[in-house]
Amino acid sequence: MGIPDILVFGAGPAGCTAARLLASWGHAVTIITRPEGAGAALAESLTPSCGKFFDLLGIRDAIDGAGFVRATGNTVWWGRGEPRVEMFAHDARGWQATSIVLERVMLAEAERAGARVERRLLTPEDAAALPATFRLDCTGRAGLLARSRAGRRMEEGHRTVALAATWRRPDAWPLPDPTHTLIESYADGWAWSVPLDETRRAVAVMVDPRTTDLARGDGARTTYLGEVGKTARLRALLAPATLESGPTGWDASMYASTTYAGSDWLVVGDAASFVDPLSSAGVRKALASGWLAAIATHTALSNPSMASAALAFFAAREAEVYANFLMLTRRFLHDAAEGQAHPFWAERAETREWDERRDREQQERAGVQAAYERLRLAPELRVHRGPDVRLEMRPAIAGHEIVFEPRLITPDDPAGVRFLHDIDVVTMVDLAPSLRQVPDLFDACVGRAGPMDLAAFLTALATALARGWLVFAPEIQPLPRP
Ligand SMILES: Cc1cc2nc3c(=O)[nH]c(=O)nc-3n(C[C@H](O)[C@H](O)[C@H](O)COP(=O)(O)OP(=O)(O)OC[C@H]3O[C@@H](n4cnc5c(N)ncnc54)[C@H](O)[C@@H]3O)c2cc1C
Fold it and tell me: Whole-model pTM above 0.90?
């Protein structure tokens, strides 16, 4: 047997996604992963947005057939505020999964698509030495390649240990909606619970061993029960329940990589970065990362001239995703910290970047509104391309591949923009200077780019003016207001 095309290390959501896609696109893929039962089961709440990836992978029926409780939302006791019952939008439902069953279902589907599966425990040395044209590290926190090659860096102020156990209640759980994920913050930690079936729930506490006032020296069970005892709602809910198994400890500290790709390897999913479990987004992030890793790998192997652009695109996207999660997590933790002066919260509740982004977005909305008004009042559309905007080729996803496409580039957005509100703004900015009426521009854009929504088109045009991609010709003055 020759060298396999692609080795995928690890069969979590990231590895199975990448392996299934790459095998179905004709590559020889081998997944090497731990023997089943070698790791502890983790209860996980999967947001409805995972469904998009299950559809893309063609595995929704298999996931729906796994018997997971379908969640309708979250019930949150956060900070000092009133309880919040958050229903998923559009009546969508999530999945209350366990990592072992999710992995079993996804691995069977990767195998069905043609991936070979080997079950054994790998060392970092194995992962580096096994021959392959390309290797994907999807080993999660273990990071068999990631730890030596990707420059893992822990996020300061986000050291978290999760202690999770399973509880059984003899009667039904007295909750407005027992399918919900429950979240409760307390003085120096927070707790979380998901249903496993009608009678059992997983309940985890998230603590920081540096700052949380833990009951130490008497075993994990005492520490865990001490933390559950600090909650109000969950403690009451668990009073008549029996602790059935656990607790098991999990490191849930956040980290990212310094680099996400080399010439023949990628770090994918949790191997690349880990986001706070608070977001309930780890699995979705892993599915997205596996999908993009498959596209980048497929491009690198089938079109070597695009390899470095494809790998750089993957790396940039992974870095951006992590940065966004970090900002969001800090914002959520800031809400939870309300009224809690403890260092557990103080370190985590940094909102400067979030506030700056919110201010920028508010300014931009005001600019778009002003441009829209000016467009509405102008007797005709007389615009030209802004002095700072250039049209350049940049990597982008097209089907299963990374290709170059034209983008509008400005000094403050070197990655550039092609679509805004689903409108091809490259076409819009190209056509706008030659037309005198907005309806004519709309028709010309439809003629070149296909049907589009008029409201979205007008918003994109106003945004193009607000951002300076297009500027009003100086001689046009708006009509005086009546
Ligand atoms: C306490 C806690 C709670 C969480 N709650 C949620 C939640 O509610 N919702 C959510 O979406 N996410 C949650 N997450 C995050 C989620 O579990 C991960 O983000 C997700 O599983 C990442 O998928 P992955 O495929 O990248 O890695 P993993 O799922 O970790 O998969 C890694 C794979 O590598 C294999 N492997 C590891 N080491 C070796 C080795 N040495 N040799 C061979 N194989 C190996 C493993 O067996 C496994 O198959 C939580 C995480 C924690 C710690």
Answer: yes
